[in-house]
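Bit of a strange request maybe. I'm writing a small parser for C-alpha cell strings and I need a real example to test against, not something I typed by hand. Could someone generate the C-alpha cells for this chain?
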Amino acid sequence: MAKDKGKADKLKGKAKETMGKATGNERMQAEGRADQAKARAKKAVGDAKDRARGAGRSLRDET
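Reply from user aminoacidic:
Good idea to test on real output. This should exercise your parser:
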C-alpha cells in the first residue's frame, strides 16, 4: 500500500517539477522535488515492511 502511494507522489512530483521548469516557477520545481523525495521515502518504508514480513515468515517456517 505504501508503495502505491509512493508511485502517485512520484508522478505528481515529476509533473510539478516539469511544470515549474516550463513556467520558470522555482517554488513549484522545489515542491515537485519534495514530492518525489516523499515518494522515495514511502517506497523505502514499504520495502522494509516487505522484508520484515518475509523474514518473519522464514523464521516461522524454519522451526
